[in-house]
Design goal:
Blueprint: H1 19-28, H2 30-40, E1 47-51, H3 59-66, E2 71-76, H4 79-89, E3 98-102, E4 115-121, H5 130-138, E5 141-151, E6 158-159, H6 164-180, H7 197-203, E7 207-219, H8 224-237, H9 247-257, E8 271-283, H10 289-304
Parallel strand pairs: 1-2, 1-4, 2-3, 4-5
Antiparallel strand pairs: 5-8, 6-8, 7-8
Helix pairs in contact: 1-8
């Protein structure tokens, strides 16, 4: 999902939710993402909503999975991202089965009980109340329809040639900061959400909840895309002035990732790993229009306050 206002800006001035960043991140993990889609086992000809579609990076993978008799609707809150998605879509073989619309995850622009599957990647980390949002999305699914949530968990990140104490210090400071940063005027974020998705989906009322984890490992030498990804993530950990981290620790951390002879990414024995999660649940609850309408009103009131 792309958002209108930057959530955080790295040292080079690039918002990590900007379209350029999203495209680089997608390319750097394309093989794992292709496998994630294959493992979901889409039904050919099914109707899908890509909730929080951003610039449409997952569209080619989804189109290939459902075939040319299916339908894909991408939904996002960012007009800029949707414009980019349409530009990317133009002239593609699957163009006729794809549409994009502006909207919220809790208020998808489709009728209730009309969608076979809702797919949402790297969006749940921005949801203050994921259980409520997942339950709201369920009402748009046909009986037996599936919600598929994919997201990160930075608690699984490891850099092989960085002192373990330094990594723990930086990671723990960021995790604590994410729990209080809303009070400082920043948008909500939980980058440790991946391992929590199964519990959230069950609490939202989904059945047959299944979790699949994907270990992402890279060794020296790195592709340029993955190098850019790691440098951006390293800077992100200490962005917003890292108020819960000592300045000298912040400087020491950033220095490790700077281009030059001492950059850890160029060490012969460098290895990086992290784990991403894909969680699937089945929706069998009956739709309640009154209850869902009341929830939409509460969401609207919160937005307007």
């Amino acid at each position: 999902m792309a958002v209108d206002d930057p959530l955080h800006v790295n040292e080079g001035g690039l918002p990590l939710n900007a379209i350029e960043w999203l495209e680089n991140h997608h390319r750097s993990k394309i093989h794992e993402r292709e496998q994630m889609i294959r493992d979901i086992f889409f039904k050919h000809g099914s109707s899908i909503v890509d909730a929080g579609c951003g610039p449409g990076l997952w569209t080619p993978l989804l189109a290939r999975a459902i075939g040319y008799k299916g339908q894909i609707l991408g939904v996002d809150v960012s007009p800029e991202a949707l414009v980019t998605a349409y530009k990317r879509l133009h002239g593609q073989r699957y163009e006729q089965l794809v549409n994009y619309k502006h909207g919220l995850l809790e208020q998808l622009p489709v009728p209730f009980a009309s969608v076979d599957l809702i797919f949402s990647a790297n969006v749940s980390q921005y949801l203050p109340e994921p259980i409520t949002t997942f339950a709201a999305m369920g009402h748009y699914l046909v009986p037996g329809g599936r919600l598929v949530i994919k997201d990160i968990d930075f608690g699984t990140m490891r850099f092989s040639n960085i002192d373990a104490g330094l990594q723990a210090c930086v990671f723990q400071a960021r995790e604590r900061w994410e729990k209080v940063r809303v009070d400082a005027g920043y948008t909500f974020e939980n980058s440790w959400v991946g391992s929590k998705l199964t519990g959230y989906m069950r609490a939202a009322g989904f059945e047959e909840v299944q979790e699949k984890s994907y270990r992402i490992v890279r060794h020296f030498p790195l592709s340029q895309d993955f190098r850019t990804y790691l440098q951006g993530i390293a800077e992100w950990f200490v962005c917003e002035d890292a108020p819960l981290l000592q300045p000298e620790v912040r400087a020491r951390w950033l220095q490790l990732f700077e281009d030059g002879q001492s950059c850890i990414l160029d060490a012969d024995r460098f290895t990086f790993e992290e784990t991403e999660y894909v969680v699937t649940g089945v929706w069998n609850k009956k739709h309640s229009t009154a209850r869902h309408f009341d929830m939409h009103i509460r969401i609207l009131e919160e937005v307007l306050v």
